[in-house]
Amino acid sequence: MTLSKRQIWILAIVLAALVIISLFAAPGGKQQQSGSTYGRSPDGYGAWYAFMESRGVTIQRWQKPLKLLFQPSELKTPKIETANPNQTAETQRRRDAQTSMAVIASPALLASPAASTVSSPITLLQVSSGEPLSVASMAWVERGNVLILLGAQSPVTKAPFESAIGSPTGAVQIYTSRRETDRDTRIKPLLNDSFGAVVWQQTMGQGRVVFASTPHLAANAYQDSPGNFEFLATLVTATKLPIWVDEYSHGYKDIEVIKQEDGNLVSYLAKTPLLLVLIQVTVMMLVLLWGQNRRFGPAIALTTPIVDNSEAYIQAMSAVLRKAESNQFVVDTICKAEQLAIQKALGLGAELLPLSTLLDVWTQQTGQSAAILEAALNSTNRPRRSSEAELSKLLEAMQTVRKQLAL
Predict the structure, then answer these.
(1) What residue stretches are annotated with the DUF4350 domain (predicted)?
(2) What are the residue ranges spanned by the domains of the chain?
């Protein structure tokens, strides 16, 4: 199908719009899942998580909003009433049962481990893309927790992009030129070279934060570098605290969180990228308006086919003759038509002449043997029911005569 210039322009605009939308408005799902312990891509941490489980280390995934961890709601202690001597024992037991049910149904107590972390410190591993620490996270660290942040912001130095830095657990492969060069006494390098620290820690209150300038410290791509896996394992187990890995930041949520956040249509639509939908609808409307709501050009009215009675008669007659296996009528008709065409080519007029006369004139004008023309036109000696081979020979003879006369 040949496209017109107008259709080519419309197609080019649609393709350009799709490319622009894909580049600037497409969701960044792959980037969000980078660093997840569920990921099997080179930048995932699935292999390291399996490595820790094979060591028998208890490690869990945090799949709730971080505000439940960094800013846990205060536990509300149910009101406890003293026993009244005037109350019966049955009434007191009933009040005690109600108090127990209130404690069990308290939402703050059900937010495990957020509720337990109020008095029990933990170690939280986060793989980010350079987000700075929030006020809530720093306050949470100051309460005695440990935050290990892979992918912290640090300046680019003159260090080589690829380097192997020695550590107590073996050589650690690093593919980044970023180093922490701050000489603050509160910063303690844990993995460094002459250009600065790749991994360092900073004490905050009763807790501490461990930073790494690369988010790929122990990613799946480093499975052939055991020093990387061992080094990160040492970092998370150094304080002997319960270990949690942040998966909520990578898009993974617990079932109860999904029900709360995406439980109804209004919440789903509120999170839908409306800008992307608006751009798509606008582009489609512009294309439809420009094309005047026609998909393949102007509408073409259907025409009623004209019935050719002669052609219909010939087809019907040929079907009858074929069914009767009688082709002599067709052979005679074709031979007469060919003879008239040959007579006109030889200048003998349009009247059908005897075959002998035509053969003499043929021999005189062309110098060819009369047998050639006789084989193409003499149909009287042919059987009533010729075979397909005989009909093929007849057509070949006619083609030979036509070539001689340039018909």
Answers:
(1) 40-236
(2) 35-75+92-253, 309-405
